[in-house]
């Protein structure tokens, strides 16, 4: 390499890059949250039945995986700004399609297109942070950006319910379109340059072949899956003992804990051993699932949800930084490939988590399913910990290639 990685994006400071990237990640997850209470109730979706509703929601993760396979290569060759502009424009168009309310095939297309836009935007946004931030601050900046993800999850569902009651089912998507346009303006204004990169073109599977990458992928997948896995099964388990407001508050507890914990954990990434941080995250996952499975009251479930939020932060904040290091260790070195791999792992968690818990609850009941999930994740997490790489000296690598 002939340039320092922290100056690849001309004129973009770490603060500006984190602001723009965090706003884009927030917008994508806000749309996710806004869609949850609206899409299943649209007449065009109701007419198709429960299976079609599941396909509609699952298509996002499928499209995200597909987009991620080429997004890393695109970011490496073109820089992060161009893909981000395209991703935001496509996201706005997809959101407007949701506002039409149907027919079903059009909503399915919109959901799939949203996943494509999300896949591109996630890879480019995280690469933008890594390309402008040195290792000593990268964990903190990644933690802040990841906090915006859980903020979108927290704000989306209750905001959507209010908007639908006050202004109709199209209003949440019109708001999300406006937010996407605001992000586009901020991107153009705050990120003045994005030079083409011809010396950083490896893809996600190049990074996956680096020793230790599979363990990091496992941590990311678990971190993404934990909250997504509980979403489809906890409301049914609570039944009549909890109103929609209480259910929203419970998920809000998990999101709030994750928002607070992400930047705090990020501060320790540069100094604490990764096995310690991720190990605590795995313990928190197991504890959360056991607490949820054996809970008999709302306050106990609130504790379990708080532990889930903590576990997500403990897993994702260090794993996000570690995956960028793996990119520097690959041959050839890559940033886009690192975060393409991150995005694949995250999307896999979003898809796998709800499917596994939904099937488990159907076959064995809620409590047994939570216990089984805790045991399985404990085993997988323990195996991942033994293969987890230590912190690498990325700063020395960058200085030697300046």
From TrEMBL:
The chain crosses the membrane at residues 20-39, 51-72, 84-106, 112-131, 143-164, 170-191, 212-234, 246-264, 276-295, 301-323, 335-359, 365-385. InterPro entries: MFS, MFS_dom, MFS_trans_sf, MFS_Vesicular_Transporter, Tet-R_TetA/multi-R_MdtG-like. GO terms for cellular component: plasma membrane. SUPFAM superfamilies: MFS general substrate transporter. PANTHER family: GH10249P (PTHR23506). One of its GO terms (molecular function) is transmembrane transporter activity. Keywords: Membrane, Transmembrane, Transmembrane helix, Transport. It comes from Bowdeniella nasicola. The keyword Ligase does not apply. Residues 17-392 form the Major facilitator superfamily (MFS) profile domain. It is a multi-pass membrane protein. This is MFS transporter. The keyword Ribonucleoprotein does not apply. PROSITE patterns: MFS. It is found in: Cell membrane.
